[in-house]
Model the fold of this input.
Amino acid sequence: MKNDPLSLTTQKILESQRIVITSHLRPDGDSICTSLALAFMGELLGKEVEIINKDNTPFPLNHFPNIEKIKIGQIPPQGFDMAILLECANVSRSGQENLDNYFKINLDHHHSNDYYADINWVEPEASAVAEMVYRLGRKLDTRFTSQIANHLYCGIVSDTGSFQFSNTNARCFEVCHKLIESGASPIKVSELLFNNNSPEKIKLLGQVLSTLQMNEKGNIAMITMFKKNLDSLNLKEIDTEDIITLARSISAVEMVLFYKEIKEDTFRVSLRSKGGANAAFIAEHFGGGGHLHAAGFTVTGKYDRLIKEIPETVDKLLKEQERIKTKNDQKLIDSY
Done:
């Protein structure tokens, strides 16, 4: 199909010479590694490609190969033929302020997206944008060097939580199989992603886990990282996925709320869930978004109030989810 988003994206890339890539604020492994792979693909096609993100690359991604290709700052108001936005529900999610006059491609795999661009390639069923860009590379007929394969493999491993999250599916394993055949090294990627901690990070792990609280039912866990925790250990950008994964491993827990203090009375709340608990549904209630089992939102207020009121609201929303599911299941039964 010539008018499907993949074909349209392929055509626009082939028509363009100067391309800029950007990803969402607080970039993660999927957006960082996919942007690098996409840039190298473009260069193999003879394109001039730059990656410009608003926020710094967090640890441990800032130690990855080729990370120096990523510039930090604002995309200039002119100078590129088009802009590719990775995992941005809207332009503001990128933090970029000069994109109004650019032809934009919106490449995302999140359910919550505003479909704001000239080409909107959004696939919530995809495990990662890395998986989507692998298919783009096949369509562009680019060569998958070991460099490109490693970055795409890393993006998928990172966003699936090492194949533990609900976005893990057969297709992502098929893509990873092809990437390994092209030279991706699972051992190397795992070492870079998961075995690169500093002693300070392990100390932080202990401090954050010591804040663990549970609601009375035991289905919601809350952990908190205050700015003072980072400051005392001289840490700035830090990957905390392993911390929230540990809290999520508690047997009866359906939902983890990870409060991260951004500034006084402002917290980024990361959600991780399991089973039928829909993290995206919860996040959207608070003005955020994300995936079924991984989402987030930002709130303001006094911590003592937020740590009490938000779990109460989450518990009510989980009950609402269960009522909706039960009602839909009954409708399905009645239809037979």
User: Anything to note?
Assistant: The first strand starts at residue 18 and ends at 23. The mean pLDDT is 93. The domain at 199-327 is CATH 3.10.310.30 (Diaminopimelate Epimerase; Chain A, domain 1). The longest helix spans residues 303-335.
